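Pilot study result, target chain (97 residues):
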Amino acid sequence: MDRISAIRNVEDALREFEDGEADLAATERRVAAVLRTYATEFDGDDDVFRAVGDDPVDGTVVVAPSEPAARERVLAATGVDDGPGEADRPAFDLERF
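Predicted structure:
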């Protein structure tokens, strides 16, 4: 799914919600499915990575050019400080998605 198709699908989901044809839960599921499909079929120069490990990073999916960059983006996306205190950071691995 390309970016334009993803945006159109999200717009359709929002329109159905606004028109009362779908409730919030159904709209959330549909938008999440669109984003998941877009991420797994991502066709850019970067790769899609998923964090596997401790909360709060487990399951976080990011797009990055490398594993080190993906690690930084996962920490930033989850609000975990990437400072010198590694002991306070959650343990996680990265897998290409």
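One observation from the pilot: The chain has a mean pLDDT of 90. A full batch analysis is planned for the follow-on phase.
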